[in-house]
Design a protein that fits this description.
Strands 1, 2, 10, 11, 12, 13, 19 and 20 form an eight-stranded mixed sheet that branches. A seven-stranded mixed sheet has the order 8-7-15-16-17-14-18. The longest helix is centred in the N-terminal third of the chain and has 19 residues. The chain contains seven helices and 20 strands. It is globular and about 65 Å long.
Length: 345
């Protein structure tokens, strides 16, 4: 008997699991590594939409809590996953410079956007219209964090690495039974895999595919992330992750030549250094039609719950939403309408 079964272990899954740890709850996680979006994500924790210079959904409100959450995981696992990483927005015109000045003067953005624009000092980057700096941003090494947490769970027999079979769930009035294991509640955090979930696949999870290119350059020497047409994120050891693309049509897991060419074509406008392509990665982000997360409890089976639809801001939103979901389950608190799945009832 455990308190919770959790299905899926990306950003949503680790957010729920760590929140359960902090509450002293027992759990069993099922993960088959079929969904890669969290592992390939760049892991930049940034509350600002840098395409339009606006605040992301609840961005400022969620930022401090998210970083504190991942720092707590560092303490639990005695490893380092979180680093401060300033983001530099590359401007394409004088008009963008003026929009930045206007945005930086807004109270909601003032603490995150630099008042002044910066001249480019990196010879490996072309930025004729200069740069704007975003403060308080961080990078979370998601792939390492997830792997380390899985090892932690495996050591205490809380992880089963195999596909989850939805048809094998036995739903009781006071819990579920799955392959002989009884749990008070079951939380699905399957990412785009939710489209195969018969209990929740009526929800409008559309998904979009993102691809990254990893390059190596000994002369780029970036200490900040650059946001141009794509993000350029330093990984260490002269490696940089560039991306990601957005494709609402292709739901395959394979990387594509078209995405690679699109990224490299755009980077010719930005990179003024020699580099080699090391690898390419892809994943399908769990995005929702109305661009809000999917959080809540099944309308018929009250022991089945969902945390999904984190999209491109999962690092920022996951910890907050996991806490809200568990407050709903454990304390009977009402989930807010804008992310509650009952908005689609």
């Amino acid at each position: 008997m455990v308190d919770y079964i959790i299905v899926g272990f990306g950003i949503a899954g680790v957010s729920v699991t760590e929140e359960l740890e902090r509450r002293g709850k027992t759990y069993l996680v099922y993960e088959d590594s079929s969904q890669k979006a969290s592992r390939v994500a760049a892991g930049v924790c940034n509350p600002v939409v840098l395409k339009r210079f606006t605040m992301a959904w609840r961005g400022g409100e969620l930022m401090d809590g998210a970083i504190s959450f991942y720092k707590g995981i560092e303490e639990r696992l005695s490893q380092s996953f979180v680093d401060e990483l300033p983001v530099l927005r590359r401007f394409n015109s004088v008009e963008e410079q003026n929009l930045w000045y206007e945005a930086a003067d807004r109270p909601v953005l003032r603490e995150f956007l630099s008042e002044n624009i910066l001249k480019n000092k990196n010879e490996g980057i072309g930025a004729p219209f200069y740069l704007g700096k975003v403060h308080k941003t961080h990078k979370v090494a998601l792939s390492q964090l997830l792997s380390s947490y899985m090892a932690y769970m495996k050591a205490k027999n809380s992880l089963i690495e195999e596909p989850f079979v939805h048809d094998d769930i036995e739903i009781l009035d006071n819990g579920v039974v799955y392959k002989g294991v009884k749990a008070r509640h079951l939380i699905f955090s399957e990412g785009y895999g939710m489209v195969q979930n018969p209990y929740f696949n009526q929800l409008p999870l559309v998904g979009n595919k993102g691809e990254y290119v990893i390059i190596k350059s000994e002369t780029l020497r970036l200490k900040e992330a650059i946001k141009a047409a794509f993000f350029i994120v330093p990984l260490g050891n002269d490696l940089y992750k560039i991306g990601a693309t957005y494709d609402h049509q292709d739901k395959s897991k394979e990387t594509t030549e078209a995405a690679r060419d699109k990224i490299l074509k755009k980077m010719k406008e930005v990179l003024c250094c020699e580099y080699t392509i090391v690898s390419q990665e892809s994943g399908i982000r769990p995005t929702v039609r109305d661009r809000r997360p999917l959080v809540g409890t099944h309308d018929t089976y009250k022991v089945l719950h969902l945390l999904n639809g984190l999209g491109t801001r999962g690092v920022l939103m996951g910890p907050f939403l996991a806490k809200q979901l568990l407050n709903s389950i454990e304390k009977g608190e009402t989930l807010e309408a804008e992310y509650n799945i009952n908005r689609f009832a």
